[in-house]
Backbone:
């Protein structure tokens, strides 16, 4: 966990969303998303499965910003899609500015 993810957890709580951190979303695979939310306080209230990833390292060419990282992210996105999940990717700057919170609210409150 990191401070940016902790802040996003606070934002998701403020939005009243039920969520899990480091959620394993692909059976038989070691793929985890930073957050999974069901769009409501309880998964039974939801109509939208959503994974949220904070894309660290995109400006340093490390992690998500490296060629290998981009290829792995593409695979992860495809696996999430196959499992019925939508995925929102945000930057640490978007979390810190509140933009990520507004984006998530817009998508999950439609």
Residues:
């Amino acid at each position: 966990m990191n401070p940016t993810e902790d802040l996003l957890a606070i934002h998701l709580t403020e939005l009243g969303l039920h969520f899990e951190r480091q959620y394993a979303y692909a059976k038989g695979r070691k793929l985890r998303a930073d957050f999974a939310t069901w769009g409501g306080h309880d998964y039974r209230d939801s109509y939208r499965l959503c994974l949220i990833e904070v894309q660290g390292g995109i400006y340093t060419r490390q992690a998500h910003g490296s060629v290998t990282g981009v290829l792995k992210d593409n695979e992860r996105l495809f696996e999430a899609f196959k499992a019925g999940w939508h995925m929102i990717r945000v930057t640490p700057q978007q979390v810190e500015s509140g933009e990520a919170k507004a984006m998530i609210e817009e998508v999950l409150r439609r």
Q: What stands out?
A: The chain is about 40% helix and 20% strand. The helical segments are 3-14, 67-82, 92-97, 99-108. The chain has a mean pLDDT of 85.
